[in-house]
Give the backbone structure.
Amino acid sequence: MLTLLHLTGGLPVLAQSTNHVAPLLHYTLTIDSTDLSGYRVSIQISHAPHRFRLAMATHHEYDDRFWRWVTDFRVEGSAAFFREDSAVWAVTTAGGQVTVTYRIRLPASGAVHFAHRPYLGPNGGLVGDLHSFMYLVEDDHLPCRVTLRLPPDWVAATGLDRVQTAPMEFTASSEPMLLDAPILVGRLHSWVFTVNGAPHQASYLPVGAAPGLDTVALVNAIRKIVRGCADLFGGSPFHHYSFLLEEGRVGALEHANSVTIGIPTSSLAAGAQDLYEEFAHEYFHTWNLMSIRPSSYTGLNYGPQQQSPGLWFSEGVTMFYADLICRRMGLRVEDSSRPAHLAALIRRYYENTGNTVFPPSMVSLAANALPGPLGDYSASTHVQGELLGVCLDLLIRDGTDDQHSLDDVMRLMYRRFGGRRPFRDSDVEEAVRSVCHCPDAHSFFVYHLYQGKPIDFNRWLRPVGLRLETGSQPAMSARGQPLPDTRVYAWQAPGDTQLRIGIENPNSCWAKAGLHTGDTITGINGRPIQVRQDLQTVVSTLHTGDTVRMEVRRGPRTDVVAVYIGGYPVPLIHLIEDPAAGAKQRRLLEQWREGLSNRKSLPG
Ligand SMILES: [Zn+2]
């Protein structure tokens, strides 16, 4: 039997079955301007099975646990339901057409207003995605239709496919696509431009009536970033793309064909130029993370977050290109030159000593997890991965006499893995070896990826005649005073009432006093510690030579640990151009410094 689905926007239009007809999902999201404390969602399920489960999904990178804010869950008609798990509702019905309704009650915003979380204000807000829509656990690849009911003068911007004849009707080819498409609503300012045949829309939600910055300059910068990525990859994994810009909020989050980006108040005066690299980073993720996927970053899941060992490539190499694409397109970047940027990265690499101790796969796995997997070390998959990207780029430029670069690896990875199976480290090695055939490529992956040895900078910088000299010096204030060792923080697991300690370095005065990451802290200097800020408040007033008494619960007893506050060393990094460098090294250095794309077709 064939069933005609009344959907448009490039969706499959036929569902074929003999005994079982695939359910159809029609979501309606309603915002009432007289009550902006939340919004209502209804899900109309046609051809519903007799038993099914609806769940709120967990994002791969964070867990906002928005199931806590679901209220008034109801199923219309003769149906029974119960909450099977925190995030899961089980429903039993007679089948046929079933309508489920619930309300999302927006939580009070904390001190930090994250751009990826739903909110509503008199001017508009953010709704949609996995914070709003539940998915059918037993069948999570159904085409979806979405109807928005908004206050009269509000419009919507989203990565969902728009139904041409109805401005508030959208479609998604599957539930994962629906749950990965936030919807910016309100009195938006929007611009549309096309690059490589793909329409891009930038939509801006101001705090007041008008944007607080020069939006023409901002949209021009976005257009350059889009052009830079299009030039690199050629093709794109989307038919259209939406930049969702939220004034007065912070942070950014990539999606399959959209991004939410906060423009904090502090960035308005400078026209958000300090965010250009972030724009480039998130947009580059559309290829490297959303399309070229690391393992575990696939499918929908309502359980705990899934960690991935491949973020050194997905995050780190994306950092590499955020800087490089902005340079190529003449946009403002943080560091004055590529060598200055490299020196800054290497300093951060040695500052977080976990980068030199743990293999990239372990640092990746710890990236979005709670503190603990790396013990008393801290590490950054972004820094470690970006430096691995720098070294791979130099290795390829040297091995091909600058005929090829990491750009070719990205194109090859996109061709091989874009929208297909997740990649592994060995797949990246295979792509590098396809591009450059250089003997060092295998040893690079063996040493640094498979065995996890620290990056041997002098080996990989030699082809461009750069030499690294390292040392250390006491951390000093701008006035030349030794800085106290404050490498400690408090953290709390979701749902846990206890505060725990995070130690950033096993040689810190905190670790030497016998404290460890994960210890439960109850007080400091005789005063109770109740929220994370309590510890930071005390730590921010410390001087070298002070002693603090930390109260730590260990099993049934509470220990008092005296911590003598010392200074701490910071790495000294000198990147030196070797005066004895040969002609090829000098030429490669010049070309690397320029950072231009060397788009040559690959053999085979
Ligand atoms: Zn990222």
